[in-house]
Amino acid sequence: MASQNMLKFVTVGRNMPDKRPPDLRRADFREIYGEFAREKAGEQAGRCSQCGVPYCQTHCPLHNNIPDWLRLTAEGRLQEAYEVSQETNTFPEICGRICPQDRLCEGNCVIEQSGHGTVTIGAVEKYITDTAWEEGWVKPISPAHERSESVGIIGAGPGGLAAADRLRREGLQVTVYDRYDRGGGLMTYGIPGFKLEKEVVMKRMTQLEEGGVTFRLNCDVGVDIGFDEIRAKHDAVLIATGVYKSRDLQGPGSGSKGIVRAIDYLTASNRVANFGDTVEEYDSGELNAKGKRVVVIGGGDTAMDCVRTAVRQGAESVKCLYRRDRSNMPGSQREVANAEEEGVEFVWLSAPKGFTAGGGHEGAVGGVVAEGPGEGSVAGVMVHKMRLGQPDATGRQSPEIIEGADYVEDADLVIKALGFEPEELPTLWGVEGLEVTRWGTIKAEFGTGATSLPGVYAAGDIVRGASLVVWAIRDGRDTADAILAQLDQPASVAAE
């Protein structure tokens, strides 16, 4: 029977935490949403209908037990709510901030379908875990017993860290190797602070270190240490590198100065704005939007991160070009709305065909077309106007060029946010026998992450392609369980 604190969706309206006004949030990189007060969190959690078939849980990649921790929150039993959420989610405070809830749990809430407005699941999840940190309920990992087996994990992103947490809790010796100077992967250097303040990620890094996970940072596999050396050191190896190779743009002028990759741009901004690092390319203006007319090409969440970062850096104007319309955009609609509030202009049904060069505002209009790599500074994006035609193989309408409707969009800085592809790991690492798919992702067994090499596993984006943090966490946890099962087998069985 449902608690008397529940089923209030008819009398209590949906409410989100207060959102900072656009003019204030444009001035810094702090998170834009406030925190629920205890009473408000309980009230909003109490709107849950406790339905018999919880679609929110079904559509969560981690299958979080959302109805139960909403009920516990409504009853004021916050520590229990945190413990329930932590059972299925290694990093609930991160998912509560950056998951596209409008496409996952909240987008499939039963009361949303009946017109009452979805439960604010993400905001309550964030509140529960932030409270857990404040109250000291989040403890370092303390295994019941230590084991001698060791696992090497390549990549300190969400998939690798989720696996490290799960393996360490079972007493295994875990070493995480990462090329960057801080762990967290794209959670640290890709996602801006206004969506995920870096203190949140660094707290989890500290918790893992205090729980016995060893981190070897600034360690580039294939350069600083060989893959075969890692295999020799450990009983199992997990590849969780993510995908960092940016998709590129071809066409006239594509090598002009001022056309940059989203990952380079966001990494520089995160280093400077969130950690106070000195970044030469930022100081020189190469990766800094201040005073510039910025054009971002792409329609996913990375593009939204770029446009909103450019606003905060003091760009003169920020435009986002996307070849389809708003309803066909892959990024979160919530992020699009936040960007529009902050002054970003979206230019729908537009695709780049090349770039003009000139340098400075005066050269932007009617600038020459740059012919070779590095020839001149970008002054504009030559744009094809598009229309939506017949659906493609995925069911989405394919964009078609409208002949004779081309024009030039003025720009001093162009950011390519076209998605990511896997690096050629077998070649980079000099590994023989590591099979990859035709897309370059590592070929791994569904559910276990086992690769073509004995004792080597893979998880996260390097297997499924560029995806969500929550899916990487799911894959990391599942693969950790498979590694544990393999190590628990008798030696005679494991060798077969």
From TrEMBL:
Keyword match Cell division: no
Domain of life: Bacteria
Domain Dihydroprymidine dehydrogenase, first and last residues per copy: 26-136
Keyword Transferase listed: no
Keyword terms: 4Fe-4S, Iron, Iron-sulfur, Metal-binding, Oxidoreductase
One GO molecular-function entry: 4 iron, 4 sulfur cluster binding
UniProt domain FAD/NAD(P)-binding: residue ranges: 151-476
Gene3D superfamilies named in the record: Alpha-helical ferredoxin, FAD/NAD(P)-binding domain
InterPro entries from the UniProt entry: DPD_II (IPR028261), FAD/NAD-bd_sf (IPR036188), FAD/NAD-binding_dom (IPR023753), GltD-like (IPR006006), Helical_ferredxn (IPR009051)
The protein, known as: NAD(P)-dependent oxidoreductase
